[in-house]
Amino acid sequence: YAEITLAKDLTFKTNFAYDKYLYDYYNYASNEVGYASSVGGRISQDRDVTTASTITNSLNYKKSFGDHNFSADVLQEAYQYKIDAFGAQGEKFLPGV
Fold first, then answer.
1. What top-level branch of life does the organism fall under (predicted)?
2. Closest Cα to residue 82, out of 40, 57, 41, 50?
3. 54-94 residue pLDDT tens
4. What are phi and psi for residue 51, nearest 5 degrees?
5. 47, 25 in Cβ contact below 8 A?
């Protein structure tokens, strides 16, 4: 994060977060035994790439007047989420493969 004093009693703060996640899955099902034997075997792959980012900005004003205190905040936040998904599947392997 970054924090900047813009003027006396006035502060700006910003925070940025970024996440990236990769899910990669492969599956092989035999053509001779098991749940995919009736279709000659099956192979599949799934891949998902997920990204998310958040930016938060705040402006804070604090002022004291003798025995009294005053504080005001202005907040802004933006969030972005994206998923890129891919899946493929094949059936009916060559005999003996």
1. Bacteria
2. 50
3. 999 999 999 998 999 999 999 999 999 999 999 999 998 76
4. -130, 145
5. yes
